Amino acid sequence: MADKADKMKARLPRGFVDRHADDIRAVKKMTDEIVKVYELYGFEPVEQPLIEYTDALGKFLPDQDRPNEGVFSFQDDDEQWLSLRYDLTAPLARFVAENFEAIPKPFRSYRSGWVFRNEKPGPGRFRQFMQFDADIVGTPGVAADAEMAMMMADTLEAVGIKRGDYVIRVNNRKVLDGVLEAIGLGGADNAGRRLTVLRAIDKLDKFGPEGVRLLLGEGRKDESGDFTKGAGLDEAGIATVLAYIETGDVAGNEGVEELKQIAALVAAAGYDDGRIKIDPSVVRGLEYYTGPVYEAELLFEVPNDKGEIVRFGSVAGGGRYDGLVSRFRGEPVPATGFSIGVSRLTSALKNLGMLDSSDVIAPVVVLVMDKDTESLGRYQQMVSSLRQAGIRAEMYLGGSGMKAQMKYADRRGAPCVVIQGGDERANGEVQIKDLIAGAKAAAAITDNTEWRESRPAQVSVKEADLVATVQGILDAQKADRG
Fold it and tell me: Is the domain of 418 the same as that of 338?
């Protein structure tokens, strides 16, 4: 026997989670509805691998020997740097560039999958999470951006978010860049401070105008005493940014004109009823956005980790990224797209009580009373008959006796069990116990004698009637659930 000290410790890496059946089924149920909307809009599925050459992932990577900030990276056997994908957009850009002549343009595609961030994990912040993206590559006009915003609205409604409980907010990085130029933050040398300003604007909903003012200046201290360093703008610069947030207008700016076009297209399609709004405070943090940006925000309120009631917030976002495919092609390739945070949207639907997997029925369990080959064959035949009728079923494959088998069936959530011992076999019968009705009856019965005499929710039927009887029990349970 191995020494306990030598036993491997089972432990989950920080920032990762195990997923269980209910969660997996709930997510699939939701993503199936998302796919229907994407397909309705003419998008086609495509899939790229989880691993790309590190240089293909672009601006997330610093200039250092081991490109590991933000991404999980390693070297293969020919010393090429590879990385787990950081998002689904950069791999799509590589795919389009590599297959440019073969694919139709504009290229409408959607895909879902896991992405990985080599960052410090925290509450609600994981190193592996799922995204669901849709993109149009090869269309320069803002009609594509307007369509993406409309599809985002339709997607939220398809998964059960009611109109009025969400808004798709649209802005334009060209307008933001105009503001940044006006306060003297143009040029490559100011990239870091520009990002700090954009992140400050993005905190408007969370901290309000005064909080943004602090983040644009020297910085802001939160309730815990933690200090976030600000952008260091002077009073004139801060006033310019705050005025822009309030009015959204920058004279003579190309981005303003593009927003007017988007507003007109949205109105023409009937989405200007509160579903889609132009909002100057929208900032998408990634540097590669070059034009319109959009964000799906849920407006209903939920308690946060501290028990405070807050607006749920963003569940999806995206924008135009005309420079990403161009990195590979050396020529302009316009593109726009958005990404849904699957975990965020799943959490939102659970908060609304709109996402579960309760319509998935656990398997019927055929108990194993005798373990000789002939008996096992009869039990297996029963299982096969149930499966052929479309009923989930399994034969107990453990080594325990009847009491433990019943406990197993309860733990599995089985709707009923099938029992055949020697006496039943001799009569060509089976016992079928309805575990749901049995539990209800047990709760109502306090007298052991009554329990023994009533044998609640258990019936004896001929083997030929097994499937029909089980189906009747399942139908009755479904009716009880409503």
Answer: no
How far apart CA 100 and CA 224 sit, in angstroms, is 51
Establish whether 87 is an annotated binding residue: yes
d(CA 351, CA 343): 12
**365 vs 311, higher pLDDT:** 365
pLDDT in tens, 355-371: 776 678 899 999 999 99
Question: How confident is residue 191, by pLDDT bands cut at 50, 70 and 90?
Answer: confident
**255 shares a domain with 113:** yes
Distance CA 295, CA 344 (A): 13
Q: Is 271 annotated in some ligand binding site?
A: no
Q: Same structural domain for residues 389 and 314? A: no
Whole-structure pTM value = 0.82
88 labelled as ligand-binding?
A: yes
Residue in 117, 479, 148 with CA at minimum distance from that of residue 295: 148
155 is in an annotated binding site: no
DSSP bridge partners of 122? 125
Respond yes or no on whether the N-terminal peptide bond of residue 106 is cis (omega within 30° of 0): yes
Sheet holding 51-53, edge to edge: 51-53, 81-84, 73-75
Give the structural domain span for 149.
21-351
Domain finish residue from 287, 318, 351: 351
Report the SS3 class of residue 304: coil
Flag whether 425 is marked binding: no
Question: For residue 175, what is the enclosing H or E element?
Answer: helix 173-182
Over residues 96-109, the mean pLDDT reads 96
How far is residue 115's CA from residue 93's CA, in Å, rounded to a whole number?
15
Q: How many domains does the chain have?
A: 2
Q: Burial level of 164, CB count in 10 A (0-12/13-18/19+)?
A: exposed
Q: In Å, how far are 134, 144, 155, 275, 343 from 340, measured between CA atoms?
A: 9, 18, 10, 17, 9
> Would the annotation count 288 as a binding residue?
yes
Q: Was 38 annotated as part of a binding site?
A: no
**Type of residue numbered 162:** K
